[in-house]
Design a protein that fits this description.
alpha+beta, seven-stranded mixed beta sheet, four-stranded antiparallel beta sheet, globular, Nuclear Transport Factor 2, Chain: A
């Protein structure tokens, strides 16, 4: 019982802390080992089409040196069960880019990610001491959706926190072009907080 309490106390309490623990584990335990450890069973990555992360990561050997990354912004649902982080990364070869990760709080209080994507950038994102944080309003809301007709060859999916204060969605074309967006409820309207666009690979 005491051990369980100690382990629960040591678990990251926020998605920002989880992101930092994830990034730290990549440096100390190995890049793909950390990705497997922090991912949900149904987590997806884009290769460039959506791929089950655990299947793709299975038996994948860790690179000699892991990529570094850090959160710059974090958006959390009112009920504290879902958050979306975005930030910067730097590869060992010096190339830089950004990431966006969807996190879910687990029954034991830990956090796991269900979606991870990103792209290269010409310049690195800054490393703030503390990322910008925003939390969805707990005021009543009604999430309205407009039915869409899927384009041929386009895959898309969306998700909501249980209280509907945080909404996200992605789509990928047949060529691998990708977009990701997130909306946060502010008490009166859904405010766009993340809008990522990735061009199709050459």
């Amino acid at each position: 019982m005491l051990l369980a309490l100690v382990l629960q106390a040591a678990a990251p309490q926020t998605a920002v802390e989880a992101e930092r623990a994830f990034a730290s584990a990549a440096q100390t335990e190995g890049q793909w080992t950390a990705f497997r450890k922090f991912a949900t069973v149904d987590a997806i990555m884009f290769m460039p089409q959506p791929t089950n992360a655990q299947a793709w990561l299975r038996d994948r050997k860790d690179p000699p040196k892991a990529i570094e990354w850090w959160p710059t912004e974090s958006y959390e649902s009112c009920d504290g069960t879902v958050a979306i982080n975005t930030g910067g990364w730097k590869r060992p070869d010096g190339s830089v880019g950004y990431f966006t990760t969807v996190w879910h709080k687990q029954a034991d209080g830990s956090w796991k990610w269900s979606l991870d994507h990103g792209d290269v950038l010409p310049k690195p994102r800054p490393k703030p001491r503390e990322p910008r944080r925003a939390k969805g309003s707990c005021a009543p809301m009604l999430m309205s959706t407009t039915p869409t007709i899927p384009e041929p060859g386009v895959q898309r999916a969306s998700g909501d926190s249980r209280d509907s204060s945080l909404h996200w969605g992605w789509q990928v074309t047949a060529t691998g072009a990708r977009s990701f967006s997130a909306l946060l409820w502010d008490g009166r309207d859904y405010i766009p907080v993340i809008s990522d666009k990735v061009v199709a690979p050459q």
